[in-house]
Write a structure and sequence with these properties.
The complex is a heterodimer of chains A (565) and B (210).
Chain A: H1 2-29, H2 44-50, H3 55-83, H4 88-95, H5 97-102, H6 105-116, H7 121-126, H8 148-169, H9 175-184, H10 189-196, H11 198-201, H12 206-218, H13 221-226, H14 234-243, H15 249-286, H16 295-324, H17 342-382, H18 389-395, H19 401-404, H20 407-420, H21 426-452, H22 455-463, H23 468-479, H24 481-497, H25 500-503, H26 513-519, H27 526-554
Chain B: E1 7-16, E2 19-28, E3 33-37, H1 44-52, E4 59-67, E5 70-71, E6 82-85, H2 97-104, H3 112-122, H4 138-151, E7 156-160, H5 168-184, E8 189-193, H6 196-202, E9 206-208
Parallel strand pairs in B: 3-8, 3-9, 6-7, 7-8
Antiparallel strand pairs in B: 1-2, 1-4, 4-5
Helix pairs in contact in B: 2-4, 4-5
The chains are: A mainly alpha (565), B alpha/beta (210).
């Protein structure tokens, strides 16, 4: 039966292109690419790569950005969860997670740039009162050589991601009882959580943490907006070489892509070593009996970082909106004067095409992802009698592969491969590349709800004479409508935000709001950037509004189905 | 139907990892209730899952189960015509009360609507058809679950502690209704419980597992 083949199909679909792509990056990296005259294996590309000025710095930057971003994001999430006490602020911060997650990386990065730039919103609000600045200060804040603004831009998005992953894992741990037990032994609440819940939570969110490391070491769009330029991070350098009109640079780019894979693997290895160290040191700390000191500080730190993060993302969007409506905006003035719609009016004719393309790609990638995810999960439910199940289910951990292998490392090779095969269906290739990243998120988003649905519903329906297919269409699907729509919204959001998987397979000729917005980064016309980044931010949000609203509308008369996210 | 609906368990044995959990040999006639009693964890619910066709593959089961002369163990769950009542009423939250009843009825039944209205009226729920099941009280939900089972025209019923979630006052009343209606329908019933009052009210033979 077709259903039974879906796990295999999914794994092949995800693993095949990645392996092929990696292979096709490895071969040119060692000089073999007959299409460009590379007939024999050689180390020339590597010699050329090592001779590139600033390579060591690029490599070091990528490594540092990956590790620092992950460490700060994880620490902030753990501290926040430890200190969260169900106050109104805590609930508000939690609710902000989903919209923050739907915000594309590029839009968040632009928002941050508009916030912290020397002429940004923060400097305006503080000037001239606190700073005495009458003109934008001559400070390098954006694209600083240390990559600090890049890290900040990534942390902005990775905190909500890790927080959501943790919130999904927490119900298994019965955290309130653990904390209550520790508190009855005299531990302050935050310390109690960190000592009794955090050690059990970490293994459950390890894969998402690794995905953050991989993403942050190899990100391109955020690095183009906030990252240093001379030299840029490694992934950006590789992209520049790849896009060079001189095609012989492809060999250099391939070597760079392989190096990027190595950097990401090195970051993962370093993190793993760090895990071992923390585990060893933590063992003593867990049972050293300290239970009171530092509680307040830790709690304030967690809440403080999360609040700052949420506000930064929100204010960044406000900054984008102001910029997009600004006529004349003298420096220390907090608001532009006058406001004008002319940037929007001027952008409107050029927005239509990319918006349509973006939505077309997003829908075309999300629908097959939903079908595949549903088929795999349905197969899992029906297959309780087949012993091969355990193996296939663990094979589905391979879903994380596209999230852990750096995009530039395998997309590069995939493009080389497809060009070699003479494939010209640009839009089709882009949709397929998006599917590689949409499918894992759709599956992960849906799996939780699907597996948690009480098995007695299906048994009951079967015992009433309905076939397994009937149970799927008439019981599971309607009962899981809300999580299904959320998964669809997640898929759309993931697709809308993709930069490299649009740029590379599309050969730069498929224009989406994301590629257009990022392309504006170099130009520095803040008003136009504001328009495009806002449009980019708004599209995924629409999906989530529909996903939340539709079940309420359809099930307005069914209390048992309302309020289930 | 020519063969009387008798549920026959012949040397049914269920084991987990080599350890024998349940061993039953019994015959339940039409309208009769066999009660299985015992502490939790002895495999009472496992036996019900085996009969209904949902046994987890981790268990090893042997023996024959036949209903009205049909061998059940080789049939898929949906073809066994064995109705279930759980601790929770489990009314489908996306369907109305009438929708839940209709969901269980055989496809080509005539006059579905009239039968549903009549069935609801018989248990004091006249006019509840279009209600959202989540707005019903616990006792009302239990009655709808019973009706759904009866209207699906099963050949036998399996009850898995169906009264344990109801409060005391409601329990006796619901119990009387359930057993009266099951007997009236002439269904062989297997009841699993650890409440002695359930066993007494059922009035049939009792097997105690330990």
């Amino acid at each position: 039966m077709l259903l039974r083949l879906t796990p295999t199909l999914i794994v092949t679909l995800l693993v095949g292109p990645i392996l092929a792509g990696l292979a096709m990056a490895l071969l040119p990296a060692f000089g073999y690419l007959p299409a460009l005259g590379g007939e024999s294996l050689s180390l020339a590309p590597w010699r050329e790569l090592l001779a590139q000025p600033g390579l060591a710095r690029s490599t070091g930057l990528s490594l540092a950005v990956g590790l620092v971003t992950t460490a700060v994001s994880l620490a902030a999430v753990l501290l926040f969860l430890a200190g969260a006490a169900g106050t109104r602020l805590d609930r508000w911060l939690r609710r902000a997670v989903s919209p923050l997650l739907s915000l594309p990386h590029a839009a968040a990065a632009f928002g941050l740039a508009f916030l912290i730039a020397p002429s940004g919103l923060i400097a305006r609000l503080l000037s001239p009162g606190l700073t005495g600045w009458e003109r934008p200060p001559d400070l390098v804040i954006l694209q600083d050589p240390w990559g600090l603004s890049l890290m900040a831009g990534l942390i902005l998005k990775e905190i909500p991601f890790l927080l959501l992953m943790s919130l999904a894992a927490l119900p298994q741990l019965d955290a309130p009882r653990r904390v209550a037990m520790a508190r009855s032994l005299g531990y302050r609440p935050t310390i109690a959580w960190l000592k009794t819940v955090a050690p059990a939570l970490y293994p459950l969110i390890r894969l998402p943490v690794y995905a953050v490391i991989a993403f942050a070491t190899s990100v391109v769009d955020v690095a183009l907006i906030l990252g240093p330029t001379l030299p840029p991070t490694l992934a950006v350098a590789v992209l520049e070489w790849f896009n060079d009109p001189d095609l012989s640079m492809r060999f250099l780019a391939a070597a760079g892509a392989v190096l990027q894979l190595g950097v990401t693997l090195a970051a993962l290895a370093l993190w793993w070593a760090l895990e071992c160290l923390v585990r060893r040191l933590g063992k003593r700390w867990l049972v050293n009996g300290a239970r009171v000191r530092g509680d307040r500080l830790l709690r304030l730190a967690g809440r403080g970082i999360l609040l700052a993060n949420t506000l930064a993302a929100g204010l960044g969007l406000v900054g984008l909106a102001l910029a997009s409506l600004a006529g004349f905006w003298r420096f220390p003035a907090a608001l532009p004067d006058p406001f004008t719609l002319q940037h929007w009016q001027r952008a409107l004719p050029t927005l239509g095409g990319p918006v349509t393309t973006t939505l077309l790609i997003a829908v075309a990638a999300t629908l097959p992802a939903l079908v595949l995810a549903l088929a795999a999960l349905e197969n899992e439910q029906r297959g309780a009698r087949r012993p091969a199940q355990g193996r296939l289910r663990s094979a589905l951990t391979l879903l994380y592969l596209p999230l852990i292998v750096p995009q530039i490392a395998f997309l590069f090779g995939l493009v080389v491969l497809l060009e070699g095969l003479g494939l010209r269906a640009r839009l089709g290739l882009v949709i397929f590349a998006h599917l590689l990243f949409v499918l894992p998120y759709v599956f992960l988003s849906l799996a939780e709800a699907y597996r948690r649905l009480d098995p007695r519903w299906a048994r009951l329906a079967l015992s009433l004479g309905h076939s397994p297919a009937g149970v799927f269409w008439r019981v599971r699907l309607p009962m899981l409508l809300a999580p299904l729509l959320t998964a669809a919204a997640v898929g759309l959001a993931v697709s809308i935000g993709q930069y490299l998987p649009t740029l590379l397979p599309g050969a730069g000729r498929v224009a989406t709001v994301t590629t257009e917005a990022v392309a504006l980064a170099g130009g520095g016309n803040g008003r136009v950037i504001g328009v495009w980044a806002l449009v980019q931010a708004a599209l995924p949000l629409l999906g989530f509004i529909v996903a939340l609203g539709l079940p309420r509308l359809l099930w307005s008369n069914r209390r048992g189905l309302r309020g289930t996210p | 139907m020519n063969t009387p609906t008798v549920l026959r368990l012949e040397q049914v044995r269920i084991a987990l990892a080599g350890r024998l959990l349940v061993e039953v040999d019994a015959e339940i006639g039409p309208g009769e209730v066999l009660t299985l009693m015992g502490p939790s964890g002895v495999g009472k619910s496992t036996l019900l899952a085996f009969i209904a066709g949902f046994l987890d593959p981790a268990f090893a089961a042997g023996g024959r189960v036949s209903l009205a002369g049909r061998e059940l163990t080789t049939l898929p769950a949906e073809a066994r015509r064995v109705g279930l009542l759980f601790q929770d009423p489990l009314l489908f939250p996306h369907l109305s009360v009438a929708g839940n009843l209709r969901f269980g009825m055989p496809r080509r039944e005539a006059d579905k609507r009239a039968r549903i209205d009549q069935a609801l009226a018989e248990v004091g729920l006249a006019g509840f058809g279009e209600r959202d099941p989540a707005t019903l009280s616990g006792g009302q939900q239990a009655r709808v679950a019973l009706l759904r089972l009866l209207l699906s025209r099963p050949a036998a019923a399996l009850l898995d502690e169906p009264f344990s979630r109801l409060d005391r006052a409601l329990r006796g009343e619901t119990r009387r209704l359930v057993f009266a209606r099951l007997a009236e329908a002439g269904l062989p019933c297997l009841l699993v419980t650890h409440d002695h009052e359930d066993a007494e009210a059922a009035g049939g033979p009792v097997i105690i597992l330990e």
